[in-house]
Design a protein that fits this description.
- The complex is a heterodimer.
- By secondary structure, chain A is an all-alpha fold.
- Chain A has a single domain, classed as MetI-like fold, CATH 1.10.3720.
- Chain A contains ten helices and two strands.
- In chain A, helix 4 packs across helix 5, helix 5 packs across helix 7 and helix 6 packs antiparallel against helix 7.
- The N and C termini of chain A lie far apart (about 60 Å).
- Chain B is mainly alpha-helical.
- Chain B has one domain: MetI-like fold (Orthogonal Bundle).
- The radius of gyration of chain B is 22 Å and the shape is globular.
- The chains are: A mainly alpha, B mainly alpha.
- Chains A and B meet through helix 4, strand 2, helix 7, helix 8 and helix 9 of A and helix 3, helix 4, helix 8 and helix 9 of B.
């Protein structure tokens, strides 16, 4: 990074620290904060979409579909979510490979389950063993995103299902009186109004999602926890920047990062709540109306 | 090997009694259930002890946060913010790294007639180190719940207490505290459930499993990684946790009934399972 960093062993003090903190590995560490933010940015809308689908399915009048939706929302309640995070990526990975195996190698005679091994033909491997490292990393990250989306989608479905039921019945009756069809009433009346009821639950969910991001580490993604352990571990003289065990400092940085995220989110969500309650027939909306008079 | 033999060998494996080697080769359903069930002992231990100690801490925190004294309120607010605002996973890592740095020796505390030696090396072991983190964590979460309940005690109750001439400790002990508990109990039940779920994180966050003595999830991952088959081990642990969740609901429901015993059915606070998960 800087010219005087060419020989780290000869410099000391503040300069050393500056060189240390701008080394190549540290740049990867800073970039991994981006990974976490990227995960949040992708997962939140995908999970919301899953949740919306789950809630609509649970409300459906077609019995199998509504049972499916209810099972999906109930799935996460009694079981620790970390189990889903460990289970879903492996299950998905094996599912994809199994499907590709069926399509690509129809004349493969051996069983896929051999003793304790799961073996598909080489062409069905995901990603292919010949593909570069970056493809493997992206595939791993995509599986992680999918696992997060499925689990958080179930929570979001819970929240949205409740919110749809909380919209006053009179609103829907009015929509019917105006001659709107089921579909029109749903999209024009129910959906715009449900957000204010869903917001407390969804903001809670967002906080939980932020706090779930370190679990990326368990899924084998090189995230901030991985780099904090990697960089903080004690380095001998063989390394460019020898230092004792500094992991505790790195984890303090992570702690501060998460506390900061929580504070910022609290502020933003507070504003969003007051924006969404404007003109709504809720206590919050009523208080705004009185204050404005 | 018969299932009975397996139970003899592995039922207490997680606390170091029985067969030393974990099962290898073909793994039966019986082995899955026995070993994962034996790991559940640790989840129960962490959850139950942390809940017990955390309960007292949480009451203190709630009272401190609601107090008018800045010196009591600010530390409580910060404690609750730090533990609720950061992931438990990071807290575990941080605590472990910090405990490892503490010199590995005993501290002598003279008590006059005898000297107590405190072994700090135990702190880096999961059974104590992780337990401390869980206690503080659940104290912060339940402290916030109790604080919320303390603030929503009906004003009439307190006015009635005043009218009877109660004040200070007796008013708190007889009127405010029982009402606070009663109002907070449904939310506290949720907290207890998700504390038990959170105990599965212990062996994935820095704290090593000594001699492969781990919790339920530790063994479930062991099976899943050996058999490359996630469809047996994870559903097994899921069954165990659903049973655990149901028993927590049952036990806390009994307490809830006792707390609400003076009220008519319609005025009671109902329990509703709310997902709160990762902390």
């Amino acid at each position: 990074m800087f010219a005087f960093c060419a020989d780290p062993k000869s410099i000391e003090g503040l300069q050393w620290l500056l060189c240390y903190l701008t080394s190549g590995k540290h740049m990867l560490f800073y970039a991994s904060f981006g990974t976490v933010l990227l995960l949040l940015a992708i997962t939140a809308p995908v999970a919301l979409a899953f949740g919306f689908g789950g809630a609509v399915a649970a409300r459906s009048s077609f019995l199998p579909l509504s049972l499916l939706g209810k099972a999906y929302t109930a799935m996460v309640r009694g079981v620790p979510d970390i189990i889903f995070f460990l289970f879903v990526p492996i299950a998905l990975d094996q599912g994809f490979e199994y499907l590709r195996h069926k399509v690509k190698c129809p004349d493969w005679t051996q069983s896929i389950w051999q003793g304790n091994d799961f073996i598909v033909c080489p062409e069905a491997k995901l990603p292919l063993s010949t593909s570069p490292q970056s493809v493997h990393e992206i595939y791993g990250f995509a599986l992680a995103v999918l696992a997060f989306a499925i689990v958080f989608g179930a929570f979001a479905a819970n929240v949205l299902y409740g919110a749809m039921r909380a919209v006053p019945r009179a609103q829907m009756e009015t929509a019917e009186a105006y001659g709107m069809s089921q579909r029109q009433a749903f999209w024009r009346v129910l959906v715009p109004q449900m957000w204010v009821y869903a917001l407390p639950g969804l903001s809670n969910l967002w906080m939980i999602l932020i706090k779930a991001t370190p679990l990326l580490f368990l899924l084998g993604v090189e995230d901030i926890v991985y780099w904090a352990r990697e960089l903080g571990g004690s380095k001998t003289q063989a390394f460019e920047y020898p230092h004792p065990d500094w992991r505790v400092w790195y984890f303090i940085v992570l702690l501060v990062f998460y506390l900061g995220m929580t504070r910022v989110s609290e502020g933003v969500l507070g504003r969003l709540t007051s924006r969404l309650s404007r003109g709504q027939a809720t206590l919050g909306g009523e208080m705004q109306r009185k204050a404005a008079r | 090997m018969s299932c009975f033999q397996t139970i003899q060998d592995y039922a207490l494996r997680s606390i170091g009694i029985g067969e030393r080697l974990l099962p290898k080769g073909e793994m039966t359903l019986c082995e899955h259930f026995t070993l994962i069930g034996s790991g559940l002992i640790w989840n129960l231990y962490y959850g139950a002890v942390a809940l017990f100690i955390g309960f007292f801490l949480a009451n203190t925190l709630a009272v401190a946060k609601a107090s008018g004294n800045v010196w009591a309120r600010k530390p409580a607010e910060w404690f609750i913010f730090v533990f609720r605002g950061s992931p438990l996973f990071i807290q575990f890592f941080l605590a472990y790294e910090a405990f490892v740095l503490i010199p590995r020796m005993g501290w002598d505390i003279p008590l006059g007639f005898m000297t107590v030696t405190v072994e700090t090396s135990w702190l880096s072991k999961a059974w104590l180190g992780a337990l401390i983190v869980l206690c503080l964590n659940t104290a912060a979460y339940s402290g916030e719940i109790f604080y919320g309940a303390l603030r929503s005690i009906p004003r009439g109750d307190i006015e009635a207490a005043d009218a009877y001439g109660m004040s200070g400790w007796s008013r708190f002990r007889r009127i405010m505290w029982p009402t606070m508990l009663r109002l907070a109990w449904p939310a506290y039940t949720n907290e207890a459930i998700f504390l038990f779920h959170a105990t599965t994180l212990v062996y994935f966050s820095g704290f090593p499993a000594f001699q492969q003595k781990g919790d339920a999830l530790y063994y479930a991952t062991y099976f899943a990684s050996r058999t490359f088959n996630p469809f047996v081990a994870y559903p097994v642990i899921a069954v165990y946790f659903i049973l655990l969740t149901l028993s927590v609901i049952a036990v806390f429901g009994l307490v809830n009934r006792r707390l609400n015993r003076h009220l008519p059915q319609s005025a009671r606070v109902k329990f509703r399972l709310r997902p709160q998960i990762i902390r």
